[in-house]
Design goal:
By secondary structure, this protein is of the alpha+beta class. The protein has one helix and three strands, in the order βββα. A three-stranded antiparallel β-sheet has the order 1-2-3, with no helix packed on it.
Length: 90
Amino acid sequence: MIEESKKCFRCANFDRFFIRGEKSFKKIDFGHCCKKGQTVESNGNCEDFKAKSALKSMRRRVECSLYDLLMQITTVRELLEAEMSENEEL
């Protein structure tokens, strides 16, 4: 079980390769290992395993939340500006 959790695709040193599809990118079973400096399989194991940081995914969630809040604020601002311009015309 310990070796199963130390697969390359879970390692912070692993950068997966992607192929450009028609509408999106598709991941493939190979990537670059920063420690070894070579192309490796995503299901491989090695002694240089380093667990990925949760900080990166948390930062992405914060960025998405801030973007959503910014869009809501922009919508409210546009509504207020439209209402103010209507009041000035009257």
